[in-house]
Protein backbone atom coordinates (compact mmCIF):
# COMPACT_ATOMS: atom_id res chain seq x y z
CA UNK A 1 0.00 0.00 0.00
CA UNK A 2 1.05 3.56 -0.48
CA UNK A 3 3.43 4.46 2.39
CA UNK A 4 2.10 1.46 4.34
CA UNK A 5 -1.26 3.19 4.88
CA UNK A 6 -4.30 0.93 4.79
CA UNK A 7 -6.79 2.26 2.24
CA UNK A 8 -10.15 3.53 3.39
CA UNK A 9 -13.27 2.66 1.43
CA UNK A 10 -15.76 5.36 0.53
CA UNK A 11 -18.37 6.34 -2.05
CA UNK A 12 -16.71 7.86 -5.12
CA UNK A 13 -17.07 11.56 -5.83
CA UNK A 14 -16.81 13.31 -9.19
CA UNK A 15 -13.17 14.24 -8.52
CA UNK A 16 -12.35 10.49 -8.48
CA UNK A 17 -13.59 9.83 -12.01
CA UNK A 18 -10.25 10.41 -13.77
CA UNK A 19 -8.44 8.01 -11.42
CA UNK A 20 -11.17 5.38 -11.79
CA UNK A 21 -11.10 5.61 -15.60
CA UNK A 22 -7.30 5.39 -15.57
CA UNK A 23 -7.56 2.07 -13.70
CA UNK A 24 -10.25 0.82 -16.09
CA UNK A 25 -7.96 1.61 -19.04
CA UNK A 26 -4.83 0.11 -17.48
CA UNK A 27 -4.97 -3.43 -18.84
CA UNK A 28 -5.08 -5.23 -22.19
CA UNK A 29 -8.87 -5.24 -22.47
CA UNK A 30 -9.48 -1.79 -21.02
CA UNK A 31 -6.84 -0.13 -23.17
CA UNK A 32 -8.91 -0.91 -26.25
CA UNK A 33 -12.28 0.23 -24.96
CA UNK A 34 -11.70 3.14 -22.58
CA UNK A 35 -10.91 6.77 -23.49
CA UNK A 36 -9.59 8.63 -20.44
CA UNK A 37 -10.61 12.28 -20.52
CA UNK A 38 -13.82 11.71 -22.46
CA UNK A 39 -16.67 13.79 -20.94
CA UNK A 40 -19.02 10.78 -21.25
CA UNK A 41 -17.56 9.45 -18.00
CA UNK A 42 -18.82 12.46 -16.05
CA UNK A 43 -22.35 11.88 -17.38
CA UNK A 44 -22.11 8.21 -16.42
CA UNK A 45 -20.83 9.14 -12.96
CA UNK A 46 -23.77 11.48 -12.43
CA UNK A 47 -26.26 8.73 -13.34
CA UNK A 48 -24.53 6.24 -11.02
CA UNK A 49 -24.26 8.73 -8.17
CA UNK A 50 -27.94 9.69 -8.35
CA UNK A 51 -29.17 6.07 -8.37
CA UNK A 52 -29.78 4.69 -4.84
CA UNK A 53 -29.25 1.16 -6.19
CA UNK A 54 -25.64 1.95 -7.09
CA UNK A 55 -22.49 2.21 -5.01
CA UNK A 56 -19.36 3.28 -6.85
CA UNK A 57 -16.70 2.47 -4.29
CA UNK A 58 -13.13 3.69 -4.15
CA UNK A 59 -10.23 2.71 -1.96
CA UNK A 60 -8.13 5.71 -0.99
CA UNK A 61 -4.67 5.75 0.57
CA UNK A 62 -2.63 8.88 1.24
CA UNK A 63 -5.12 10.94 -0.75
CA UNK A 64 -4.77 8.70 -3.83
CA UNK A 65 -7.51 6.49 -5.30
CA UNK A 66 -5.91 3.04 -5.46
CA UNK A 67 -8.91 0.77 -6.09
CA UNK A 68 -12.50 0.78 -7.25
CA UNK A 69 -15.54 -1.35 -7.88
CA UNK A 70 -19.19 -0.78 -8.68
CA UNK A 71 -21.89 -2.51 -6.66
CA UNK A 72 -25.44 -2.62 -8.00
CA UNK A 73 -28.40 -3.71 -5.88
CA UNK A 74 -31.07 -5.53 -7.88
CA UNK A 75 -34.51 -6.23 -6.42
CA UNK A 76 -36.16 -9.30 -7.90
CA UNK A 77 -39.18 -11.55 -7.85
CA UNK A 78 -37.41 -14.90 -8.20
CA UNK A 79 -36.24 -16.79 -5.13
CA UNK A 80 -39.15 -15.43 -3.11
CA UNK A 81 -38.41 -11.81 -3.95
CA UNK A 82 -34.73 -12.01 -3.12
CA UNK A 83 -32.53 -9.01 -3.86
CA UNK A 84 -29.08 -9.60 -5.25
CA UNK A 85 -25.96 -7.52 -5.69
CA UNK A 86 -23.84 -7.31 -8.80
CA UNK A 87 -20.14 -6.52 -8.55
CA UNK A 88 -18.63 -4.85 -11.62
CA UNK A 89 -15.40 -3.19 -12.72
CA UNK A 90 -13.12 -4.29 -9.89
CA UNK A 91 -9.78 -2.60 -10.38
CA UNK A 92 -6.68 -2.09 -8.27
CA UNK A 93 -3.94 0.38 -9.15
CA UNK A 94 -1.04 -1.56 -10.69
CA UNK A 95 1.30 -0.35 -7.94
CA UNK A 96 -1.02 -1.81 -5.27
CA UNK A 97 -1.65 -5.27 -6.73
CA UNK A 98 -0.72 -8.35 -4.76
CA UNK A 99 -1.24 -6.78 -1.34
CA UNK A 100 -4.78 -8.00 -0.67
CA UNK A 101 -6.61 -4.78 -1.56
CA UNK A 102 -8.81 -6.46 -4.18
CA UNK A 103 -9.87 -9.10 -1.67
CA UNK A 104 -10.67 -6.48 0.98
CA UNK A 105 -12.75 -4.47 -1.53
CA UNK A 106 -14.76 -7.53 -2.58
CA UNK A 107 -15.26 -8.55 1.06
CA UNK A 108 -16.47 -5.01 1.78
CA UNK A 109 -18.91 -5.27 -1.15
CA UNK A 110 -20.21 -8.62 0.12
CA UNK A 111 -20.72 -7.19 3.61
CA UNK A 112 -22.57 -4.19 2.14
CA UNK A 113 -24.79 -6.52 0.10
CA UNK A 114 -25.66 -8.44 3.28
CA UNK A 115 -26.31 -5.20 5.13
CA UNK A 116 -28.76 -4.16 2.41
CA UNK A 117 -30.60 -7.49 2.60
CA UNK A 118 -29.27 -9.19 -0.51
CA UNK A 119 -29.29 -12.97 -0.58
CA UNK A 120 -26.82 -13.39 -3.43
CA UNK A 121 -23.78 -11.61 -4.84
CA UNK A 122 -22.91 -12.20 -8.47
CA UNK A 123 -20.33 -10.99 -10.93
CA UNK A 124 -18.94 -11.66 -14.36
CA UNK A 125 -15.35 -11.59 -15.51
CA UNK A 126 -14.04 -11.75 -19.05
CA UNK A 127 -13.30 -15.34 -20.09
CA UNK A 128 -9.71 -14.33 -20.91
CA UNK A 129 -9.06 -13.15 -17.33
CA UNK A 130 -8.03 -16.51 -15.89
CA UNK A 131 -6.20 -14.89 -12.97
CA UNK A 132 -9.39 -13.01 -12.04
CA UNK A 133 -11.41 -16.23 -12.21
CA UNK A 134 -9.01 -17.92 -9.79
CA UNK A 135 -9.15 -14.85 -7.53
CA UNK A 136 -12.96 -14.94 -7.31
CA UNK A 137 -12.97 -18.72 -6.77
CA UNK A 138 -10.59 -18.25 -3.82
CA UNK A 139 -13.17 -15.84 -2.37
CA UNK A 140 -15.92 -18.47 -2.65
CA UNK A 141 -17.54 -17.52 -5.95
CA UNK A 142 -18.66 -20.44 -8.09
CA UNK A 143 -18.84 -20.52 -11.88
CA UNK A 144 -22.46 -21.73 -11.79
CA UNK A 145 -23.85 -19.94 -14.87
CA UNK A 146 -22.74 -19.00 -18.35
CA UNK A 147 -22.63 -15.25 -18.83
CA UNK A 148 -23.78 -13.92 -22.18
CA UNK A 149 -23.70 -10.40 -23.55
CA UNK A 150 -25.17 -8.63 -26.55
CA UNK A 151 -23.42 -5.44 -27.62
CA UNK A 152 -25.89 -2.74 -28.68
CA UNK A 153 -24.64 -0.21 -31.20
UniProtKB/TrEMBL annotation:
Keywords: Acyltransferase, Ribonucleoprotein, Ribosomal protein, Transferase
GO molecular function: acyltransferase activity, transferring groups other than amino-acyl groups
InterPro entries from the UniProt entry: Acyl_CoA_acyltransferase, Bact_Acetyltransf, GNAT_dom
SUPFAM superfamilies for the chain: Acyl-CoA N-acyltransferases (Nat) (SSF55729)
PROSITE patterns linked: GNAT
CDD domains registered for this protein in UniProt: NAT_SF
Pfam families assigned: Acetyltransf_1 (PF00583)
Residue span, N-acetyltransferase domain: 7-153
GO cellular component: ribosome
Protein name: Ribosomal protein S18 acetylase RimI-like enzyme
Annotated source species: Crossiella cryophila
